[in-house]
Design the sequence.
């Protein structure tokens, strides 16, 4: 067997480097696929959160069934009496599903970001993209990784200041109002 010429080895090494972790430019096919994946992740995220609202509605402790009034946990306990344990079990069940979904969505979005760069609205060329909201529901165990990834993506101009600010608002404890996007495209930070 003949040894490989130096140029062939160089091309092989470059190929390996670019195929292992270097963010590539998004093709139309990549954008379409990423949009579907992100939209599916977001739909699942929201479905389970809406199920929490449905539990309140089924037990008639939601605002609609209480004259627009928000009931505290104590008020729900008083209203439900013996049924409170059944209510709490239903809420816990949905919250467990939400926690698992948030964990798997976060892992997948981190992998997608590593391979493709952050799938922001601008990069996917869509009116609305929901990738940043996946990180806004991420578990604490991912905060340091997310901070690092988002800081890098912002420096590489693959995520907007608004998306970054919203994610950091969550990671930094959700203090005050979340940031908002002003009409001129700048970010209004909450206080």
Sequence:
């Amino acid at each position: 067997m003949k040894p490989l010429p130096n140029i062939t080895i160089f091309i092989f090494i470059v190929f390996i480097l670019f195929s292992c972790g270097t963010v590539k430019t998004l093709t139309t096919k990549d954008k379409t696929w990423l949009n579907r994946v992100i939209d599916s992740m977001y739909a699942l995220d929201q479905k389970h959160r809406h199920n929490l609202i449905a539990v309140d509605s089924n037990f008639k402790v939601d605002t609609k069934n209480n004259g627009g009034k928000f009931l505290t946990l104590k008020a729900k306990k008083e209203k439900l009496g013996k049924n409170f344990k059944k209510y709490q079990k239903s809420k816990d069940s949905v919250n467990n599903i939400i926690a698992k979904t948030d964990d798997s969505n976060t892992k997948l979005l981190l992998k997608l970001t590593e391979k493709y760069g952050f799938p922001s609205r601008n990069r996917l060329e869509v009116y609305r993209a929901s990738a940043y909201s996946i990180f806004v529901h991420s578990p604490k165990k991912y905060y340091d990784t997310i901070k690092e990834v988002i800081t890098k993506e912002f420096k590489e101009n693959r995520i907007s200041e608004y998306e970054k600010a919203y994610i950091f608002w969550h990671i930094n404890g959700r203090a005050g109002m979340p940031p908002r996007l002003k009409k001129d495209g700048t970010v209004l930070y909450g206080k």
Notes: Residues 6-20 have pLDDT under 50 and may be disordered. The chain has one domain: 25-188. The first helix runs from residue 6 to 19. Strands lie at 180-181, 187-188.
